[in-house]
Amino acid sequence: MRLAGRRILVTGGASGIGREVGRRFTAEGAAVALLDRAPIADASVAIRCDLLDQGAIAPAVARASEALGGLDGVVSCAGADLMRPLSEMTPDQWQQIIGVNLTAPMLVCRAALPGLRAAGRGTIVAVASGAALRPLPNRTAYCAAKAGVVMFCKSLAIELSASNIRVNAICPGIVDTPMWRASWEGAADPEAELAMILDRYVIKRVGQPREIADAALFLTSDESSYVTGTAIAVDGGRTFH
User: Fold this and answer.
1) Smallest Cα–Cα separation from 8: which of 60, 48, 50, 64?
2) Helix, strand, or coil (residue 73)
3) What is the residue range of 149's domain?
4) Cβ 213 vs Cβ 220: under 8 Å
5) What is the pLDDT of residues 134-166, one digit of tens each?
6) 196-227 residues labelled b (16+ CB within 10 A) or e (exposed)
7) How many domains would you assign to the chain?
8) Looking at residue 39, what DSSP letter applies?
9) Which of 20, 27, 144, 234 has the fewest CB atoms nearer than 10 Å to its CB?
């Protein structure tokens, strides 16, 4: 019960890392509100919100805070990917990837600030990507957005330190989620594509959502009470290899 009494908002809670964070945090005693544009099954507090609809974000966060009786933490997991050479990418596609991966986390955090300040202590954890630390070709929008998340967290950690709010980022490597599987299963030779991906890693396997949720749990719990402004790579060794 490492999160007993904590009230946490998790974005991207319908699947993948966000869904696993919700399960893990609930098992550790937290009251959790899951936010996603897709339907969310088996959640005590589930809120539908399209994070590209900027005007819908603050009301959704307010509903989560009301349902939970306040907010002690945020875990921003929602994300979107785009594999496209710059020469073939449209401005609208760029805006969409930046909007989901960078602008939306900012708006969620801004809307959550009154609740986090009122709680007297708070935590913000944003899921960035190993692509924020070591870039990938044909993903200029995704890499730029995720690198922005890392620096957003570092800057915000300084800004919110006086309010006793800690802010950290997680940089996952490949994780077995629907978004990741879509990035290689449609290749001309999926097995060769997967082998090429795994060759970048010291640990030659795909990460599991539970392993990222464990990192989010550490950064949200009191075990990390002296940790803020950091970006933890949970990536099987990719970013140093």
Assistant:
1) 64
2) strand
3) 7-174+207-234
4) no
5) 999 999 999 999 999 999 999 999 999 999 999
6) ebeebbeeeebbebebbbebbbbbbbeebeee
7) 1
8) -
9) 27
Residue 201 bears catalytic tag: no
Examine residue 82 and state whether it is found in any structural domain, yes or no: yes
C-beta of residue 57 within 8 angstroms of C-beta of residue 107: yes
Residue 53: predicted pLDDT: 98
**Rounded to 5 degrees, what are φ and ψ at 120?**
90, -20
* Residue 190: inside a domain: no
Q: How confident is the model at residue 187 (pLDDT cuts 50, 70, 90)?
A: confident
- The total number of residues written for the chain in this structure: 241
Catalytic residue among 3, 64, 142, 167: 142
The CA angle 57-26-20, to the nearest 5 degrees, is 70
Q: How far apart are CA 48 and CA 38, in angstroms?
A: 7
**Residue 169: which CATH number?**
3.40.50.720
For residue 153, give the amino acid letter: C
Q: Give me the sign of the Cα torsion angle 136, 142, 148, 149.
A: negative
Amino acid at 15: S
Characterize the bridge pairing of strands 73-76 and 45-48: unpaired
